[in-house]
From TrEMBL:
Record field: compositional bias (Low complexity): 1-14
Alphabetized SMART domains for the sequence: SPRY
Protein name (Swiss-Prot/TrEMBL): B30.2/SPRY domain-containing protein
One cellular component term from this protein's GO annotations in UniProt: SCF ubiquitin ligase complex
Length: 285
């Protein structure tokens, strides 16, 4: 990017009552209405932790960049670089995540552009401000993040995860943290993108939600934050599955079908993600 990522970026004979009914039918059958209905139905089917409870956390005024402004009910809306941008700004959430299951959604404004807009988690050692444009969340071992370019970052390593987000188009990013299984999963506009990170149950330092952006006047609003009631059965499964790596390992145990099926729900059959470098990030994949 340049030194600044600032903002630039009916029947003629019909009666009135007939016309009113006709207009209502037309509105209900319009392409936009149909899309909204389909999205609502899809979203209802894919909301994680729907049987959990509301989790009323918000962003920290103490742990944030000086280029972050919080507003709205309970400080849930984040404004990055309200005037112009000359670096990377981040903010940490107040919710400690370890040893639980949590889901939250970020409604991102249409100002999606620039070097990096990121969503994820980090420890207290993850920095929240840089005087340069960079993928800040995941630049070291203290952060795990997804950038709007579809790339995962942790410990300075970038892995191709999903398609780039469309620039200047609003979107909803969902994040599911499972501290029992040790995973972090992303959702985009109601669609699950798959497990992004594993092994988070081994992190002893407190983990918190984090977002950051290099783009001027980016806005995100925290919505639909929920937490699960973790029971003893789930905790026992998490311990058992640390020793079972494949479905074949599970079959060899010759357990009753009901137990095997329960254990298999969290078995990670996934393909390794491709590592990318800075050159790759300049182009479409």
């Amino acid at each position: 990017m340049t030194s600044s990522e600032s903002s630039t970026s009916s029947s003629r004979n019909s009666t009135p009552r007939h016309r009113q009914r006709s207009n209502a039918r037309s509105a209900n059958n319009s392409p936009t209405t149909s899309i909204l209905k389909r999205n609502a139905m899809s979203r209802k089917a894919l909301v994680p932790l729907e049987h959990g409870c509301e989790d009323n956390w918000t962003w920290s005024r103490r742990h944030r960049s000086k280029e972050v402004v919080l507003s709205g009910p309970n400080d849930r809306t984040v404004h990055f670089h309200p005037n112009w941008s000359k670096g990377t700004a981040g903010v940490q959430g107040k919710r400690p995540l370890n040893n639980g299951r949590f889901y939250w959604e970020l409604h991102v404004s249409q100002r999606i552009f620039g070097t990096s807009i990121m969503f994820g988690i980090g420890t207290n050692k993850a920095r929240l401000h840089a005087n340069s444009f960079r993928n800040m969340l995941g630049e070291n071992v203290h952060g795990w993040g997804l950038s709007h370019k579809g790339v995962l970052w942790h410990d300075g390593i970038a892995l191709l995860y999903t398609k780039r987000f469309k620039e200047n188009q609003a979107t909803v990013i969902g994040i599911l943290f499972d501290g029992i299984e040790g995973t972090l999963t992303y959702y985009k506009d109601g669609k699950c993108l798959g497990v992004a990170f594993h092994g988070l149950d081994k992190i002893k330092e407190p983990l918190y939600p984090v977002v950051c952006s290099t783009a001027a006047k980016t806005e995100m609003t925290l919505k639909c934050a929920r937490r699960d009631f973790v029971n003893l059965q789930d905790r026992c499964r998490a311990v058992i599955m640390k020793h079972i790596k494949t479905r074949q390992d599970l079959i060899q145990l010759k357990l009753p079908a009901i137990i095997s099926n329960y254990l298999a729900e969290v078995l990670g059959d996934y393909t390794p993600l491709r590592q990318v470098d800075n050159y790759d990030l300049l182009f479409d994949f």
